[in-house]
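Sanity check

After download, print the first record. It should look like this:
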Amino acid sequence: MNARKTITIAFFLVVLGVGYYSMNAAPVVRDDAHTYQGGLEWETDPSTAFDAAQSQDKPVLVYYWATWCTYCERYDKNHYRNETVRAALDDYVLLAVNIDDPGNGTALVRQHQATYPPQHRIMTPEGETVESVEGYIGRDELLATLERGSEEAT
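Expected structure tokens:
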């Protein structure tokens, strides 16, 4: 076999190996190990979340996320696991919607045009949006948004 054929075969083997690895290393659309929700309890059904919000008189924090979202992973590590953020989130009913598999959240995804993660919406118990966060923001900015949203929604 000549050198050119050997190099060509080696190149294709490397390409196939990288492709195989990348398909198996990335989390899939639905993977409970990659929810990036900080170990918090989030509703996944909007009807349940809004019913709870009305009965508890709390606003709803809608979190649009995806398993492949690196900024969602940052929210998980830097924000949702922080005690100050957790305390602020106690004032909310939490609703997480996976944009790749929104289930009952499809109407909300369309309403908010949530085509990329992460995104947050703060909504009144009646469903009016009062605050929006597009993409990743720092912890202090998130806390300020949560405080503002809680005041506006009640």
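If your output differs, re-run the checksum step. Summary of this record's structure: Residues 56 and 96 are 18 Å apart (CA to CA).
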